[in-house]
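Incident review: delayed structure delivery

Summary: a single-chain prediction request sat in the queue longer than the usual turnaround. Root cause was a stuck worker, restarted by the on-call engineer. No data loss occurred. The affected request and its eventual output are reproduced below so the record is complete for anyone auditing the incident later.

Affected input:
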Amino acid sequence: MKIGILTQPLHANYGGLLQNYALQQTLIRAGHEVETVDWEGAGKGLRCLLYDIKVKTFHFLSPSKYPQMRYRPNAKERAIIQRNTNHFINTYIKHTETIHSYDGFVKQAEEGGYRAFVVGSDQCWRPCYNTFLKSMFLDFVKDKQVKRIAYAASFGTDKWEFTPQQTRGCKALAQQFNLVTVREDSGVKLCKEHLGVDAVHVLDPTMLLTKEDYIQLIEQEKEPKSSGTLFNYILDPDEKKAAFIQHIAEANELRSFQVLPKCQAETRTKKEVKTRIEDCVFPGVTAWLRSFMDAEMTVVDSFHGMVFSILFNKPFWVIGNAERGMSRFTSLLKTFHLGDRLLDADKLDNIDISKPIDWAVVNGILEEKRSESKDLLLAQLNE
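Output delivered after worker restart:
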């Protein structure tokens, strides 16, 4: 069966690319032909625009405390900045040409020969991140015989962020799905209360593959050894987090290292892009993966940083990020009985950093949940 995957755009997001790759590989191994329908948003959601206004205001009032809003590079600059992640996309993810409009989605569905669409994973059902929100509910699929599946779709939060109009439109579309599964346990409740569908809580696609699958990728790319032993993957850095990382490194006699551009995407300025563009280039996806393989411990504030720490059985601490959504962290950690690894960004003092993790228990849960999640997805496709 030919299957189209619909997820977030193929950009320089390590977790986003790897969840796409993992879902693709899971479906290919089950004997399906798979293609990701790539798309690019035509603008920003209202909440993102309001967030930009807030960032600009805070920066104006206190420039030293609040960095200015990041500069968004043009197409030529993006090609340079994303050359390493683009290598991964073009080598390991089979995808369509980039779609820029609803009509483009309709044409792709009509001409692509798909017998099923799988929506997910990542925050594909978060209005803030999607200018084609209804298309994430397959409004462009006119053939009623095409299967509609959501795999580990995420709202990114436990709050309902849809407008009444968005809710009405997406509810009608969601009720046409053959199967709806969500990444967070809170998503089950949101689906029931607002979309009128019974959803199942499943693992993120990255967890459908094994550590050995990712090591094979690292070896295929001949990725060199990492530069340290304490991997810190912090998307929203500040002085408190830096101090905590330094404390962890010193207490455990570890050498801290990062795999991020010198000019981080979240805070880079126009001047940095124009005059130091090489410092804005994202390291490769397998360099990021190798960091988990080589690290003795990790400190992260991202969902997929947490996921790969678990997959590679590395002692980790995850610093919660309320702005990006906490339910992503709490749901996964609850699944693996690791709730004590989640730290409050404002309370990083007096943490007992000697707490061990019982990896035998964690790996047992992972095997069970992986089998359940995979079986549910593939059984629906085989019906």
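Verification: The chain has two domains: 2-208+368-382, 211-366.
Action items: add queue-age alerting; document worker restart procedure.
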